[in-house]
Amino acid sequence: MSTAQFFFGYFAVMLTGLSVLVVTRKDPIHSVLWMLVLFVHIAGLYLFLNAEFLAAVQIIVYAGAILVLFLFVIMLLNLRNEERVKKFQTQWPLGAGAGALLAIFLCLIVGKVIVLAPLGRYSEDAVNGDGNLMAIGKILYTEYLFPFEVASLVLLVAIIGAVVLAKRRLE
Amino acid sequence: MIYTLIPLLPLLAFIINILFGRDYIRDKAHLIAVPAVAGSFLLSLVAFAGVLKGEVINVNVYSWIVSGDFNVSIGFLIDQLTAIMLMVVTSISTLIFIYSIGYMHGDKGYYRFFAYLSLFVFSMLILVMANNFLLLYFGWEAVGLCSYFLIGYWYEKKSAANAGKKAFIVNRFGDFGFGLGVILIFLTFGSLDYMTVFSGADSVLGQTINLFGYEVDTITLICLLLFCGAVGKSAQMPLHVWLPDAMEGPTPVSALIHAATMVTAGVFMVARSNPLFSLSATAMNTVAVVGGVTAIFAATIALVQKDIKRVIAYSTVSQLGYMFLALGVGAYSAGIFHLYTHAYFKALLFLGSGSVIHALHHAKHDDEQNMEKMGGLKKYMPVTYWVFIIATLSITGIPGLAGFFSKDEILWRAYLGGDLGKFLWFLGVAAAVLTAFYSWRLIYLTFHGSYRGDPEQEHHIHESPKVITVPLIILAVGAVAAGWVGIPPVILEHADRIGEFLAPVLGHPHGHGTHLEEWLVIAVSVAVAVIGWLVAMFMYIKKTDLPEKIASLFKPIYNLLFNKYWIDELYDKIFVQPVLKASDRIVLAFFDAKIIEGVVNGIPALIGGFSKKLRNVQTGFLSNYGLAMAIGALCIIGVFIFMR
Amino acid sequence: MVPLNWYIILSAIMFSIGVVGFLARRNLIIMFISIELMLNSVNISLVAYSHYLQSLRGQILVFFIITVAAAEAAIGLAIIIAFYKNNPTIKVDEINLLKG
């Protein structure tokens, strides 16, 4: 077993285990905190895959912003008394069955209907020349400029929408 | 490309006015529309200057439809022909927009008017700038739509709403043919791009297509189908019936759409497709004959009409006939030349009549268009009177004015066109007499003599405001000078600038005659113009009771003309009534009552019962829906895994 | 060298765990977290493809997914707050407004 495979094994086991922890904790705060650990591991996996920029974004945006947002909401709703009741729905066996079947199906389908595209020009060495950030920046601001601008619009709409939805009614 | 802005500016004005017009802009709509169309005009000037320098632009701006072999772009072709059309459309639009500020002042749909007018200008510019047949078709239909909007602009008036519908439906007949023509072009050439089609035209020469068991020449069929569209749009026989009714719209609309620009789209389209038409003698002759016959036919109707705008409308139909006559004898540049001069003097006539109607409207608080209720307006409206005189001199072909040069060019080219040409020339000359007569009749009835309306109102009549008269004066200058770019060589060497300018697109007309013949043709045209004038003067100034007498003497003919050959009634009997009856008996009585009602009542009962049971599936719980979704996804993936 | 398929299978398993979380839990917020989990598992597969196909397209896509996820979280949580104000519960089996 090579070092790479060893590290992958570590990440795989941790990610799977953490995922299970995230969806099974009773207290949503615990879920969110396990999610934090999960995100750090995903960031590590990204580093492993030569996606340094995304690793940073994963930590900053997901762990730094989105999870904090979750924590705030949980705090705002003050859900102490919600915790004591049962945590799974009545349909949970069906849900678990569907999930398990989905996992099996998805594993079966690997390599079956995937048609790999020809290799692109951003090989590891090519990217490492300028650095991952430079490579992504160049492509993002040229080829993907329009979607990039649209993304900014999406965020703007999200800001306005969140404010409008969450504010108290002015009466 | 900067020239993309030429159509986009009016489109922008339309969008702004239609979105914000009712609540915010209201009576300031012109502040948006006029600068937009003026901007288009300035850009068109730049484009025109570019083309003068010999720079022809053909670009694809946007890939519109890509579907297998079918590939259409939104693209613009600015060549000599388009440049001329751009100048005509944008310059006249600008003037008419300005005129409308005064004419439509205080109307409650003011913003709507400018919005539709801007949309029209956009569509027209797309039509003339298109570089493929589909985009042309788009513009073609869009101008028709705007025409419908604007004819029925005063939709509360039933006649206006009906006229709008009539225009739209009659145009459907023509456009059906046009659409088929476009499809056939694609089938034949595998492309709709002008350049591809025109350069491939020679290679399909002689190819035939089986139509209902007959072998028909493909090119001829394409040309005739395209010409169907032109007949509808340009109000030629037998689809001319909509244009006179279209005068129900506001006068600026009549001037812009139903005189200067939209109705000439047919002429433009035939001229644009000249590489196709030139290959089919049958199609050419059809065009020429339809044009010639329409020219004289419409002119005879115009002789006796009483509505001032209808006279001008029939005159438009007649002049359009001239243009097709020119196209049909192969003198494309003469047709376009006449289109261009006609735009100025006909817009001037319409706007002048609008000025008259406007003045009488203020005096009587009612739209008066009947010339028998006018008269003697000369002393109240001097500016309108003089521009009317100029326009009339121009349209009747008095030497030196715009109409003379273009009309003479057409008649001369017709004269050179063999036996058929000679006959058409004769029709043209006859129509010219009639044109002169009814044009002067209009002036004498409206401006000379004494006021025949209510004397009470007479002192309320006054000249229209500056915003109306200034465009009139500018157009009058155009009606005089527009023809000076096309002086025939026999009068002045190397002065036929427009013919030379258009030659790269439209080619040189064939046929040569002696100078003597050409002078004779000119002399005949001038002579008939003067004869018509003198007769009109005699009948309406000297012996004012003469028209009555003649009318009663030739009662049947008078009635025939006055009722427009009963063509409207004929169409009503043949097409409208049977359709209405059939829809009453078959559709209403049988289809509606039995089938539709039965189905309509039966299906709800079925669905109602079933949905009562099905409703239980909708639990309202998010997780149930999620589960359903997951199972659906599983099924799809399962298909991929196990079925392949 | 780690084969590409390992990553894909890891991603698939994480995705399925997210699905189970979404379908089985009662707590609306945890369902939301499950959705984030699913998005992240997809991101892993995209980054893996990006690496193995030597194309940056996958990473760009992940970048946009993160953007949209941020927007989605903000809106979704705002909806939860708005909902909670009218109807103080976040147990999904007590919410059945989604029926006609």
Walk me through the structure:
The complex is a heterotrimer of chains A (171), B (644) and C (100). Chain A folds into two domains: 83 residues, NADH-ubiquinone/plastoquinone oxidoreductase chain 6, subunit NuoJ (Four Helix Bundle (Hemerythrin (Met), subunit A)), CATH 1.20.120; 52 residues. Chain A is 74% helix and 0% strand. The termini of chain A are far apart. Chain B is mainly α and 644 residues long. Chain B contains 26 helices and four strands. In chain B, the strands form two sheets. In chain B, strands 1-2 form a two-stranded antiparallel sheet. A two-stranded antiparallel sheet of chain B has the order 3-4. In chain B, helix 2 packs parallel to helix 4. Chain C is an all-alpha fold. Chain C has a single domain, classed as Helix Hairpins (Orthogonal Bundle), CATH 1.10.287. In chain C, helix 2 runs antiparallel to helix 3. Chains in contact: A-B, A-C, B-C. The interface between A and C is large, with 91 and 72 residues.
Largest sheet of chain B: 2 strands, antiparallel
Integer count of domains of chain A = 2
Number of strands of chain A: 0
Q: Sum up the overall morphology of chain B in one term.
A: globular
Look at the structure and give the mean pLDDT of chain B: 84
| Main beta sheet of chain A | none
**Rg calculated over all Cα atoms of chain B:** 28 Å
Helix-strand string of chain A: HHHHHHH
The quaternary state of the protein chains shown equals heterotrimer
Q: Beta fraction of the residues of chain B?
A: under 5%
Q: Largest chain-chain contact?
A: A-C, 91 and 72 residues
Helix content bin of chain B: over 70%
- Report the uncertain regions of chain B: none
- The share of residues in helices of chain A is over 70%
Q: How many β-strand stretches of chain B?
A: 4
**Globular, elongated, flat, extended or rod-shaped: what is the shape of chain A?**
globular
CATH superfamily of the largest domain in chain A: NADH-ubiquinone/plastoquinone oxidoreductase chain 6, subunit NuoJ
* Poorly predicted spans of chain A: none
Outline the secondary-structure elements.
The complex is a heterotrimer of chains A (171), B (644) and C (100).
Chain A: H1 3-24, H2 28-48, H3 52-77, H4 92-109, H5 124-130, H6 132-142, H7 145-166
Helix pairs in contact in A: 1-2, 2-3, 5-6
Chain B: H1 5-25, H2 30-52, E1 57-67, E2 70-78, H3 80-103, H4 110-129, H5 133-151, H6 158-189, H7 194-199, E3 208-211, E4 214-217, H8 218-233, H9 242-245, H10 251-260, H11 265-272, H12 274-277, H13 281-302, H14 308-328, H15 332-364, H16 382-396, H17 402-415, H18 418-447, H19 455-458, H20 466-481, H21 497-506, H22 515-542, H23 546-553, H24 555-562, H25 567-614, H26 622-642
Antiparallel strand pairs in B: 1-2, 3-4
Helix pairs in contact in B: 1-2, 1-4, 2-3, 2-4, 3-4, 3-10, 3-15, 3-20, 4-5, 5-6, 5-10, 6-8, 8-11, 8-13, 10-15, 13-14, 13-18, 14-15, 14-17, 14-18, 15-16, 15-17, 15-20, 15-21, 16-18, 16-20, 17-18, 17-22, 18-22
Chain C: H1 4-24, H2 28-52, H3 57-86
Helix pairs in contact in C: 1-2, 2-3
